[in-house]
C-alpha cells in the first residue's frame, strides 16, 4: 500500500506529531488513535471501491462530497494510476469533510468495510462477443470477490460492473453472502434517465417524478408506465390524454431513448461517469444511513412475477434499502405484457448464468 505522501522524508516526525502541538486537558483521556483501545466511541463508516477507473472514481468522489463515509479505500490493479487518484482526492482535503483515504492493489486495504462497491471490469474488445466479455469479467471477479468477502464478512456488496445483473449473481455465489447483502446497481440509473426525460417534458424537477425501469439493466429493461407519478399524482393517463401520438410505438421510442442514453454518452465522451456516480452514491446513502428508500436495484428475483423459484437470477425490482441491505421487494402491479417481458429477461439471464460454471 502506498502512503499518500512520505511525510518522514519531508522531515515530519512519524509518531504522535500532534502531541507536540496540542496538550491534553487536565484529567483527560490519552489521545485516541484509530488502532488504540481508546478509539472513538462512534463506529466509523468505511466504504471500499474496487476499480479506480472512470466509474469508480466518480462514485468515490460523490461519496466523499456527500459525506457518506469516514474512510474510503480504493483498490485497482494499476498501482501508479491508483496512487495518483488517491493523492488527487487527498489534495482536496482542505475543502472537504475529514475522510481518510487509503489505497492499495491488495484487497487487505478494504478490511472491515461496511460497503464494498465493485466497478472493476474488463472492457469489450472490438468484435468480442458479450459472452466472451462476461467470461473475462467472471475470471476477474474470481480474483476480486473472495478476498474482499474474507476481509469484510459483514459488508454489503454493491456490484456496478457490466453486465451488472449476471455479475451480481456471480458476486453472490463467490462471496457466500446472503442475497439480502448483495445488490446490483441495476436500473437505478436507467430510472433516473426515465425520470429526467419526463421531467424535461413537463418542466418539473426530476425529484418530483416517480417512474421505474425494471428488469435487466440493458436492452430488455421494462418501463413501468403505470408507475409514473408527478408530485404524487398518477400521470400516465393525463400524458396519454394530452398526447394523441402517445401510442405503443411512441412509448417504445421513449423506452429505447432511456436504454440508449448510456450508448449515446459513451459514443460522445468514451464512457459514462457522473450519473452513475450520483446513482451509486444515492444507493450508498440509503444503505449506510438506513434510509429505507425504495430503489430499482438488481436483487435475487426468483419467485417474483412468475419467475421460476428454481431460476436463481438477479434483475431489477423496486427494493427497500437500509443498513441490512435489501429489506424487501415491492410487489408491483404489472400488466401481463410487462410481467412476460420480465420473465423473458430472467430466462435469458438464467441461461447465461448456467454457462458460467460457478
Ligand atoms: N451498472 C451501471 O449502471 C454502469 C454504468 C456505467 C459503467 N458501468 C460499468 O462499470 C465498469 C467500469 O467502467 P469504467 O468506465 O470505470 O472502466 P475503466 O476501464 O475506466 O475502469 C476499470 C478499472 O478496473 C481496474 N481493474 C481491472 N482489473 C482489476 C482488478 N483485478 N482489481 C482491481 N481493479 C481492476 C482497471 O485497472 C480500471 O482502472 C464497466 O464494466 C462498465 O460497463 C456500469
Descriptive account of the structure:
Tetramer that arise from random association of LDH-A and LDH-B. Residues 187-352 form the Lactate/malate dehydrogenase C-terminal domain. The active site is at 217 (proton acceptor). It comes from Triticum aestivum (Wheat). Pathway: Fermentation; pyruvate fermentation to lactate; (S)-lactate from pyruvate: step 1/1. By secondary structure, the chain is α/β, with parallel strands linked by helices. It folds into two domains: 46-184, NAD(P)-binding Rossmann-like Domain (Rossmann fold, 3-Layer(aba) Sandwich), CATH 3.40.50.720; 188-354, Lactate dehydrogenase/glycoside hydrolase, family 4, C-terminal (L-2-Hydroxyisocaproate Dehydrogenase, Chain A, domain 2, Alpha-Beta Complex), CATH 3.90.110. It contains nine helices and twelve strands. The protein has a six-stranded parallel beta sheet, with helices on both faces. Strands 7-8-9 form a three-stranded antiparallel beta sheet. The chain has a three-stranded antiparallel beta sheet with strand order 10-11-12. Helix 4 links the parallel strand 5 and strand 6. Helix 3 runs parallel beside helix 4. The longest helix has 22 residues, at 130-151. It is globular, with a radius of gyration of 22 Å. The two termini are 31 Å apart. The relative contact order is 0.12.
Amino acid at each position: 500500500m502506498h502512503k499518500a505522501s512520505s511525510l518522514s522524508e519531508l522531515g515530519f516526525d512519524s509518531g504522535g506529531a500532534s502531541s507536540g502541538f496540542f496538550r491534553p486537558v487536565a484529567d483527560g483521556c490519552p489521545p485516541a488513535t484509530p488502532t488504540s483501545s481508546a478509539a472513538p466511541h462512534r463506529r466509523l463508516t468505511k466504504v471500499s471501491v474496487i476499480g479506480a477507473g472512470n466509474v469508480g472514481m466518480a462514485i468515490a468522489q460523490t461519496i466523499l462530497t456527500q459525506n457518506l463515509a469516514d474512510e474510503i479505500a480504493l483498490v485497482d490493479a494499476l498501482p501508479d494510476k491508483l496512487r495518483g487518484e488517491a493523492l488527487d482526492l487527498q489534495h482536496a482535503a482542505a475543502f472537504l469533510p475529514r475522510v481518510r483515504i487509503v489505497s492499495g492493489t491488495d484487497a487487505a486495504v478494504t478490511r472491515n468495510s461496511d460497503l464494498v462497491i465493485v466497478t472493476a471490469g474488463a472492457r469489450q474488445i472490438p468484435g468480442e462477443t458479450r459472452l466472451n466479455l462476461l467470461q473475462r469479467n467472471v475470471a476477474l471477479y474470481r480474483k476480486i470477490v473472495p478476498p474482499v468477502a474474507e476481509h469484510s464478512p459483514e459488508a454489503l456488496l454493491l456490484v456496478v460492473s457490466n453486465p451488472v445483473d449476471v455479475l451480481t449473481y456471480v458476486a453472490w455465489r463467490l462471496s457466500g453472502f446472503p442475497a439480502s447483502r448483495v445488490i446490483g446497481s441495476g436500473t437505478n440509473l436507467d430510472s433516473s434517465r426515465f425520470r429526467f426525460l419526463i421531467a424535461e417534458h413537463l418542466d418539473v424537477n426530476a425529484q418530483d417524478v416517480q417512474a421505474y425501469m425494471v428488469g435487466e439493466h440493458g436492452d430488455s429493461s421494462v418501463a413501468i408506465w403505470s408507475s409514473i407519478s408527478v408530485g404524487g399524482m398518477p400521470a400516465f393517463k393525463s400524458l396519454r390524454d394530452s398526447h394523441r401520438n402517445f401510442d405503443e410505438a411512441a412509448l417504445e421510442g421513449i423506452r429505447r431513448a432511456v436504454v440508449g442514453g448510456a450508448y449515446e454518452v459513451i459514443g460522445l465522451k468514451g464512457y459514462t461517469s457522473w450519473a452513475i456516480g450520483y446513482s451509486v452514491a444515492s444507493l450508498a446513502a440509503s444503505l449506510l444511513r438506513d434510509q429505507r428508500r425504495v430503489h430499482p436495484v438488481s436483487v435475487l428475483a426468483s419467485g417474483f412475477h412468475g419467475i421460476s423459484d428454481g431460476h436463481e437470477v438477479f434483475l431489477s425490482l423496486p427494493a427497500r434499502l437500509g443498513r441490512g441491505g435489501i429489506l424487501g421487494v415491492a410487489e408491483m402491479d404489472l400488466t401481463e405484457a410487462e410481467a412476460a417481458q420480465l420473465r423473458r429477461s430472467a430466462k435469458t439471464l438464467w441461461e447465461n448464468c448456467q454457462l458460467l460454471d460457478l
